[in-house]
Structures
1.
Amino acid sequence: MDTMRDRFAPVVSRLLDEDARVALVLAEIGAAAFTEAQARHPDRVINVGIREQLLVGAGAGLALTGMRPVLHTFASFLVERPFEQVKLDLGHQDVGAVLVSAAASFDWPAGGYTHMAPGDVALLDTLDGWTVHVPGHPDEAETLLRHAVAAGDDKVYVRLSAQSNAEGLAVDGARFRTVREGRSGVVIAVGTMLDAVLAATEGLDVTVLYATTVRPFDTAALRRATEAAGTDVVLVEPYLAGTSTAVVNDALADVPHRVLGLGVGRRELRKYGEVHEHIAAHGLDAQTLRERIPGFVA
Amino acid sequence: MTTIAAAHGRAYGYGYGYGYGYGELSGLMGLMTGDEKHGPAATSTLDVLWVLYDRVLRVGPDRMSDPGRDRFLLSKGHGPMAYYAVLAAKGFLPVDLLPGFGSYDSPLGHHPDRVLVPGAEIGSGSLGHGLPIAVGTALGLRAQGLGGPAVWVLTGDAELDEGSNHEAIAFAGPAGLDRLHTVVVDNSSASHARPGGIAARFEAAGWSTATVDGRDHEALYAAFTTPHPGRPHVVVARVEPKTD
């Protein structure tokens, strides 16, 4: 199966063909996949070299002239390293951009902690007005990339991952999907966590919501789910554990509720190896979830 | 109630600010600071700003939505009184806003906010953001076939300590962004610097460079209008060393 990132270049190349407002800014990473697009659109496919502050600043400048910039590199270097540029050059300047990251929380474990960004969504949560898409499958990534670029001058983050669920679902760039209905708790599976959550909750009497757009958070879907399934809520997120716990608390502020936030641990593991080993180390494999979820909602 | 600004407007014989000359800038700054006289540190950018807005930039209050206008990006957002005075003198903002400088409801903060200040192309304050944004602005204009507008960014010499500037400088030269211009107001405020170091760094990245007396209007004008085909252009405007 191809990866979300394999879809990124073809989708954005088509968008460059279709819409003269679209400009792509790269910082070396991913540039090889855009050779043809760059030949067709030499002024709108821009590789600034290994310069991530310039990546975001130049994106803001493009937006100030009325263009729709798409900025891409690994999440560590897109959100964390130039975070002040994200805050000021986009937010404070009141312009938009589409930030598309790769490598996610630990897509390249052998690359070590320098290439892991479990805190990206939490960091963006300190800022106002960001839409955050977390696709769980290459098909969903394609849909959400198109939504992101088409979203006027909004600030949009699309978090691509080498990990994937087996099947893509229809996503609309806004709402959660109800994947399973039960009466004893709500489990919200975000992006690539869905398959493990479905396996872990097999036979349990819980509602499973599938979230691929987490900001804004589909509060209405959560409230509806709690009507039948009660207000014990488990979040399973492929980034920093608890990132959305506060959002869930706010959504249920007027009713008694409990929230368990599962995700990537804060502690640096200092381990290399394979993705599945890191999933297990953070307790996000189906077997461990099978132990943690029933213990909370029961 | 007669405001200080209104009194000044009458004294100078102008209403909104159109027609103010260089000689009135100190008085306009006085509306913000309450001082009649301003030391060099407060006005290090004043002559550069005046020559740009008076003779170089193709901008105006009626052109702020014109895609073909020149873009001036004040990256050194500290000490913006000279900037606000020039914007007021050129009619971008009403003179009677100046006395409110820094107050809660004033659009004029101690660092400018583009959302609030008529005529400001960017908000600044945190150093090292203007030049990368200017690179993107030049790229955006080029991508839209707008070869006419010039992009100008003003930085301080100490502001160039920020590494983000060097990402922009090193990219813009090889990228041939010949509509991009930087003016560095050099008041020797960087703690660690070498003589000639500023121009040398731009030159090494392929920029056209000029170093002039930042108080000499004719020299500034000549440096600002020097042809620089195929290359971005930097003007280092040297003024008195910062003393406070």
2.
Amino acid sequence: MLQTHALTASYGQFKALFGIDLHVAPGECVAIIGANGAGKTTLLRSISGVLRNAPGMVTHRGTPIGALSADAVLQRGIAMVPEGRKLFPSLTVEENLMIGGQVRRGDGRWTLDTVYALFPILRERRLSPGTALSGGQQQMVAIGRALMSNPEVLLCDEISLGLAPVVIRDIYAALPRIRETGAAVVIVEQDISRALSVADRVYCVMEGRVTLTGAPAGITRDAVHAAYFGNAA
Amino acid sequence: MQISVTTRTRASTIAGIAALALIGLGLILPAFASRSVIQDLFFILTLLTLAQLWNLIAGYGGMVSIGQQAFVGIGAYAMFAGVILWGWDPIAAIPLGLGAALVLAVPMAFFAFRLQGAYFAIGTWVIAEVTRLLVAQWKTLGGGTGTSLPREATADIWGVKAIAALLGLRDAAARDVLAYWLALAMAVGTMAAIYILLRSRNGLALAAVRDNDNAARSVGVDAARLKWAVFLSAAAMTGMVGALIFLQTARISPDAAFSVTTWTAYVIFIVVIGGIGRLEGPIIGVLVFWGLQTAFADYGSWYLFSLGLIAIAVMLFAPRGLWGLFTDRTGIALFPVQRRLTTTSQGDSRNG
Amino acid sequence: MIWLDTIVQGLLLGGLYALFAAGLSLVFGIMRLVNLAHGDLIVFAAFLILVVVQMTGLNPFLGALIAAPLLFAFGWLVQRVVLNRVLGKDILPPLLVTFGLSIALQNGMLEVFSADSQRLRAGPLESASVDLGPVTVGIMPLLTFASAVMVIFALNQIFYRTALGRAFRATSDDPVTASLMGINPASVFAIATGLAMVTVTIAALFLGMRSNFDPSIGPARLIFAFEAVIIGGLGSLWGTLLGGAIIGVAQTVGAQINPEWQILAGHLAFLAVLLVRPRGLFPRAVD
């Protein structure tokens, strides 16, 4: 459904991605793992339209979307939870959620009420400025905000970064309920065991290239180690 | 094999020699050029100096002031005050312009440096307006309508008689020659000073402050002191140029001396069209500005209308100015301040 | 009693300055754009209303109603075609482009409309006044002030009560993340500038009915407007109204002392506020 074809990306002179091939099937959960600076975030930014590419490098249901802007990509049903959560400080929690729902696809299940049902604490804090919340609550707002557009694919960039383990557990507990609605989820994650536990398939990225791919069951510790740090073993 | 840091290029060596030749030519030009050429060159040289000074504070220093007309005006008025109130010779009164601008620049900097970005720009403009309105209250210098230099003062300016005798000119033409030589000296002196500054350690520090104030401070650059020094010296020099310009016109009014359009808008256009943040930029810019003005002088306001549109077009399509466009294509820099690593060795000399 | 009158007149004058400043405040608050052509745009709008009035024989209020959508379109287009391309971290490019626009507008108007002073005729309304106990105030200044309050109120409603206003605030906070929410920052900015031009139309209407105007008076209006915006604090619309009032009162008080000090007193009040509060009276908490 969503595919990248020999995707490359660079920041000025610096090349960050060297020909990434990746695909996401409907309803699937795909994890992208890799060390810091491997190119995981760049990959998500390229898919979501924050970075523009040649049109054919990213396709969605056969349509080239690589050159579309981020707002056009969202309208096709691909929503992103950006790294660092990036709530709008001038907006309340509820306004942050509402702005996510400004572009809605069809009459999907996500509304303010269903998001509040998923993360009940947000209902209590709905009138606070988004940035007055704790890190974990902010992450919930960021996820809820992306869900409000009823996406077909949800891209999650480092949703556990900087959070306490107990908070991470709560956030990951929401993933199955998000997948129940039929949305595919792509998570970028540095915590390998966490990624392997939720994903249907895993891509390991090193220095801008995919070094390992497959279902978690077929992946050994040594293979991941090699894919992470190069062929030292 | 030896590695060294240099800013010199072959083009810069040629440019250096050409610049010296041009200065020499400029010095002897009044011996054979017509009076109107000298007047045009006076106009070009003074605008060039103002443009270089604005380029220094905004292009290199990152201080986008739209209040530089305050210094032109106060400098000019100080010179007039020296002549009219105290009977000084106009030439002797020119440094008064420098002093007055410096005195004004201290409170202006104290105030404006507290402001950031757009607030800085607007703040400097308002201070210039305040200065204009205060000067317009100065009744002995003509108040709001302005005044002229008295005839007896302009009749025997220092050196005019000697120039008239030397070149066989009338006094009026000799006055133009004198003003032209002073303008030439100010332009050359200003550009040389800026060039030396940029090639010094302070030049690097200035670039660092412009690009990131806090980062520069954290590696030991005294950002505040450097900004003060640059702002004050540019202001002082701008005041002196202002005094010279109004010595040549011999007539002054608050609206003319403190005109934001003439002394700041046009100066900014010159810098932008030529290329901001480089020494060559204002030179190209002032030539384009003068060329347009000469070519379209008969079209009145349409000329200024087009100038505005050209400034917009340059910003959209060549944001680094005409000179930027040229160096991007050719890699040539006449007054390079960029440091490059070079290797010198007997045999093979590949750059490391 | 004369001082009470002076202050009331100053407050009402401040309404005019707040009208000048409202559009500037909106655009400055949303996209940090310093529009140096704002004053000339007000004058341009006044000329447009004048042309409409002369062609149709309508009164200026109705003329403004016709001019407003045209000016909305003009603002939208300028933002789309020119200003969006120079917005960024560096304040210099937009500053220079709007400086260019200012010079082009001034001189274009000079060629088309000549340097002659013009005025929008509003009939008996111009000289009507009302007795409010200790002070007598003109209907026109009163109407100006009421319009300023209404414009600021309306902009605030849009800003805090509508989806468009949410998009304004979100884009102002972080354009990249806003685009991930399906917002196109370029088109949000274009709508904001269009809206600003509608407020400019209203400002132009009162400028033209209250006093003479000619192509050269833009920059002075721009300074007053900027002073009001900066005194109020970036992004605070009610602050802008207060800023206008402060400039207005300072000017009338200054003029009361010495007629030549009117403008000077306004500037000095601005500098004094900025000296104490470099970010204005009500700066937004997040910037």
